[in-house]
Design goal:
The chain is an all-alpha fold. The chain has one domain. Helix content is 43%, strand content 0%. The protein contains two helices and no strands.
Length: 42
């Protein structure tokens, strides 16, 4: 019997846009956002 593949679960905040959802946990951790890296991702 083959195991079902689980879909990834992302804890996104629906009222935030993509950039805000990416940077939100970084800011909560009182760290600086690497804008160059962020622009590469987006």
């Amino acid at each position: 019997m083959e195991a079902k593949k689980q879909k990834p679960f992302y804890n996104l905040v629906p009222v935030l846009n993509v950039k805000e959802n990416i940077t939100f946990p970084i800011k909560l951790d009182n760290q600086n956002v690497d804008t160059n890296r962020l622009n590469e991702i987006i």
